[in-house]
Amino acid sequence: ESTAWTASVILTPEFDFLPNTRMSLAVDYFDIEVTGEIAVFGAFNVVASCYGSDFYPTDPLCSLFARVDDLDRSDPFWNSGNPSNIAFVRDSFVNIASQNQTGVDVTARMIHDFAGDVTLTLQGQMTWQFDDVTSVFAGFPENQSEEVGEPTFVGDFYAQLDVGDFSFYYGLDVIGDKLTEINVTSPTCVRELEAQFGVNICAKLFDAVEKRLN
Question: How would you class 136 by CB atoms within 10 Å of its CB: exposed for 0-12, middle for 13-18, buried for 19 or more?
């Protein structure tokens, strides 16, 4: 069973001193809860989740496996190998009590038309995750927010300048407090075309931009 609560606000302000500019801001709050999910973790994940649990060693996941030295010699899983080895893992279906995730998505965009056929677009898409709580077993909630693979913030930002049939793009990807990727693109195959036909496309483009702006 899944329950989702959302609330959204969209703003499109207009300013007299920016007659050629369009702006929008969208804010979406989300609260999603999943209960009664059935899953199989796999032997590795059972063991890793036990030792990585906030409730170790009392987390019920820790009861799904045992090492040789934890067993009585009469136990069918006991063996004469290394006593620190894992003797068995019960990797069966598990009823996950609940999963809950809350946060806010924000999208901001500004498009400005310059004189001539020149347009500048600025956009940012951001997500703040407040909670990411999983209770595999009731009474053992773990907030995974800020852990590896669960950043509290992710953002995608870009600026694009369109000049006639040409576009320049600059983008940034941010995860947590780390800048993970920078994308800079312009008309594709520029170097190949310049090498083949002996023309300076970049110079022609910037000459056209200056002409339109002036």
Answer: buried
